[in-house]
Amino acid sequence: MPIFAPNRPGRRPGRLFALPLLSACSLAVVAAASVLPAAAIAQADDQALWHGAGTVAPVDATIEPVYGQPISDFSLIVWIDPECPYCKAFGRTPEAVVDASKGRVNLAVRLLPLPMHGRAAILASATAICVNKQASAMGYYQFLDRYLELTGTNGAGLPAASGSSVEALAREAGVRDMGALDACVHAPETIRQLGQGFDAANTAGVTGTPAIVVRDNRNGLVAMAEGAIEAEEIERVIRLLVARTTN
Question: Where are the beta strands (DSSP E) in 59-210?
């Protein structure tokens, strides 16, 4: 069963698909995605964006920043690189899905700074982790949203304009102890946490950023896609997962 179906006529214009994404934001080591039951969705899906995944850890609000309810029927799990242009294009799309779900969907954004994007991606990711320690999940998502809004992407980082440093964005997000922030950013534990994130992404079968997983927490079914897809597409696959369990 192919993971990606060939391009077909009639796709909606302006969408970023998985295969172009891989050439721009690929991991150095690509894990083969296991074909889980959700792959049947991709087989029957004329857009063929969704496929199976490897092992994806469920969202756990006790160990990671979660947007929305701590426990929901469905979770969006999104891997981003703060310097990836596709992630910038994706923007607040997953948060919009959660906001429209009336508590049925929550979100965990997991960090995957790719080596090709250099120090800027690593610094932004480490800062986001440390913002969460002082300003909780709300600060974490605010920091990442602002960073993606402002970055030049592809390793360019934030513009030199006054007020757009990672420290300034951290303050906006609620950080008060800048000394503690700096110590956290450079702490070995933070680097280990980023490394653990790479391992988890590899196990999940992530091949580029943004990687989006929809997980049905009622039964563990997952569907994965790559690229700056639209909120309506994510909502559509949630409906497909609902239909799969009710039919």
Answer: 74-80, 105-111
- Model confidence over 113-131: pLDDT tens digits? 999 999 999 999 999 999 9
C-alpha to C-alpha distance for 73 and 32, rounded to whole angstroms: 27
Neighbouring residues of 186: CB distance < 8 A, sequence distance ≥ 6: 126
pTM of the model: 0.81
Decide the pairing of beta strands 105-111 and 211-216: unpaired
133 backbone φψ class: left, alpha, beta (φ>0; ψ -120 to 50): alpha
Rounded Cα distance between 78 and 132, Å, is 17
- pLDDT tens, 61-84? 999 999 999 999 999 999 999 999
SS3 assignment, position 113: coil
| Per-residue pLDDT tens digits for 12-31 | 222 222 323 332 343 332 22
Q: What is the DSSP letter of 157?
A: -
Distance CA 161, CA 25 (A): 27
- 230 near 204, Cβ under 8 Å? no
Q: C-alpha 106: how far from its chain's center?
A: 13
